[in-house]
């Protein structure tokens, strides 16, 4: 049985997006959290406008603070980005954006790059959209592999995508992409919405499951929802999971006071780790 402790916890900065990045980095130092899952969106780091020098500057700032970026998570779920778009211009712009994200992740010396499946028109068969997504994801994953980076794909909820909603969809996309550099991440919130369990993910995805978003229902601060977090932690230990657990808070009312929200999650996590 694996030991999971604070050294395996990573915090994503997405719920600090109405504050400057240094506010989040200060909080990491204050809470003595070393690992960060770096969400790249405005105003923290805007991939589309970023330069090589911007990436170097950010890497040096993280090094100065002793922070360890374990994953680079470029904003990609909404307008105007969609790797599965039927419009070739939007699809190419989305691909270029993700390929640039790989280059930035390499400069930051980050081992993982988060990817999403995109979406096709609802009400239409998703097969062609999924083919377009897989073609683009393959190119991004292969570019990531060139730098020694693992691309990780997450399935979403029906309000976000119609291409990958379950572990079966995720496994199918991994097979269709067919890149050794693409693996899977499970988000416990999405997992619960689809009526699945961690045991099923480990059983069906095996060694392809390399990362966990340890999230609460509705992506609230840990302990404020209704998911069996203690059971999840026990399952991860029993499965000898040795990766990181990224904590995300995506409930927008908690963006107002992100420090308070983070403190709630960390208190809950401390109790789970005991």
UniProtKB/TrEMBL annotation:
Keywords: Isomerase
Domain named Xylose isomerase-like TIM barrel: residues: 49-267
Domain of life: Bacteria
EC number: 5.1.3.41
The keyword Repeat is annotated on this UniProt entry: no
Taxonomic placement: Bacteria, Bacillati, Bacillota, Bacilli, Bacillales
Protein name, per record: Fructoselysine 3-epimerase
Isomerase listed as a keyword: yes
SUPFAM superfamilies the UniProt entry points to: Xylose isomerase-like (SSF51658)
Gene Ontology molecular function: isomerase activity
Coiled-coil parts of chain: none
